Amino acid sequence: MAITYTSGEQVEVYRFSLPATILIPLAAIFLQAWLPLRFRFFTIFDLPLLVTIGFATARRNPLAGLFTGGLIGILQDALTHQPIGLYGISKTVVGFGASSLGIKLDVENAGARFLLTILFYVVHEIVYFFIARVLVSLQMAWSWPHEIFSGVANAALGLVIYAMLDRVKQRT
Amino acid sequence: MESVFGRYRNLVVLVVVLFGQILGLAVQVRRARDKDSEPTRLIRVWAVGAVTPLEKTLSWVRTSSGGVWHNYFYLRGVRAENRELKREIEQMRLDQARITQDADQAHRLQALLGFKEKFISQTIAAQVIGGTGSELSRSVYIDKGDRDGIKPDMAVLTRDGIVGKVLHVYRSTSLVLLIDDQTSGVGSILEKSRLQGILRGTSSGTVVLEKVMSDETVPVGEQVLTSGGDGVFPKGLNVGTVTKVSAGSDLFLNIHVRPAADLNRLEEVLVVTKVDEKQSAPELATTVRAADILAQRLPGVPPKPEPTGAGGQSAPPKNSADQNSTSAAVPKTAPQAVPKTTKPNSTTTPGVPSAQSTPKPQTASQEQISGAGAQITSTPRKPGSAGAPVAARLSATSAQNVVANPQPAVEKKNLEKKNSPAASPSVPGETTTGTSANKTSVAKTAPPKSPASGTETSATNGVTKKPAPKPNPPNAAAIPAKPQPTSQDPPQ
After folding, report:
1. B7 domain-assigned
2. Nearest CB to A33: which of B22, B133, B203?
3. DSSP readout, A45-97?
4. Is residue B95 located within the same domain as residue B146?
5. What is the pLDDT of residues A8-34, one digit of tens each?
6. Which of A79, A136, A139 to substitute to test the interface with B, most B CBs within 10 Å?
7. Which of A165, B247, B330, B464 is buried most, with the most CB atoms less than 10 Å from its CB?
8. ipTM
9. pTM over 0.80, yes/no
């Protein structure tokens, strides 16, 4: 599955309704907070990140992407006891990058989505690790095998999430 | 300039947003170090307010459906479980009898040394409704908050061991920081070696005990308890078990601990909302013990029927509950949790004291007699008030006075009679009620004295005492001189 290069004129730009824009990130954050209590393995997933990537690639607007990512990240931060901004900064970067890349790539393709998700998951973790270690002085261990495995798992789940988002997005 | 901004508008906005967030992050870190007020409180309240209602609803639905299934449909194995639990209760009664004696001894020693202890006096049960969804923030939300009386820094635990402490409190929810979070710290002590350290979480989710010197020996499997030094957890709560010991950095050991509570499967927890600090009163222990000894040495005489009212009818025999309410002059070293419904002289599990024969330590009546200035009450009793526990009203000083001074002739006679082998042999296997019988005998045989007579000065000082239980037939020969009746001694 090759990544298809497209011109700016060929790409489709989508938007989401207001309820979907509010409720889908909220549901993702809620599930991210609730499911790991019942299913321990779910901690390797990052549903808010997948929603951020899904929104960003569909809208293809870097500003919308960075603000969506930033808000989702801050909301996710607010549930933790760590300083607000760890997830906020990471997801801001991911939202901006995903929407910027969405302009240049055909992100309707499943293969492209899969690879894109792995890439942005790793970017997200690197930014998060850097901020946590340098700015907040938290002790974190970095493991490439773990990150790659988690990236693949998130990419697999992301295909399902993106397919669900495709159903609610509207063509502009 | 405008063209540059227009050309790189997205990038500029990104930089500005990132800069703003980094600035906010730095402010939070600075404020946290300065122990200042939390600047992000409003954002957290909004986020928690948006998410926790969903979690509460889902948690309620899950609990309700699970309750219907488990309580009404899926009852397989309940009978077997019931039998097993009953067996466990019997075993625990045996254990409790032993432990209570040790605890009472410890309390007496602590009282002598003037120790202050912290007791968990009030807890609130809460349900875990959600987590944070972050590996870096190991904490959970519970469904109790400010309106339920939850405050920051309250200890949270389960029946297995400690869980964490309350970090943030919202209106109807609270955030509990788990002990495996890397920002938590619990003052801990090893159970046998009594080495103290700080329990911390790591980024990988394991729990380690820090600040134990590397020249110490810590065996794998040793229990870790709270030391009480952190001001959050009372001393002696179960923390976990040592699973691995290795040489750490610097001069300290790297001790891995498996938490006693399963932090990955938390459902219901207890929040300690009130901790009392008490100091055992030395005079209490002394008073009770002196009175106990005296009561044990006094002979027993069966009571006469009590005439009630003007009709002179005999009073009905007292029920078992009255008999169970042994007076204060009972050994303090008896187990506490004894079912009150046990009938007198009923056969119980060997080694498990029955309710009738088991004295209850630290009862209200004991506290009453230990009141200030409580002396022997030699106030003449009303006719027919058989069983008024004179000995029970002894305070420590008065009890010593009584022992030091000559006893009345009748008492001496009874005492000799009691100590003689021929006198009232005990029935094998029968539980004794010697203490109350003895007290009653004192009441019957000792002549009422005026408040000013002898060393037994009258000074009731408002001390109220329940009538002594109806004594059993004299089996006082089975009563040992020590406070613990031998027929009730639990197996060691």
Report:
1. no
2. B133
3. --HHHHHHHHHHHHH--HHHHHHHHHHHHHHHHHHSSSPTTHHHHHHHHHHHH
4. no
5. 445 677 888 888 999 999 999 999 988
6. A79
7. B330
8. 0.83
9. no
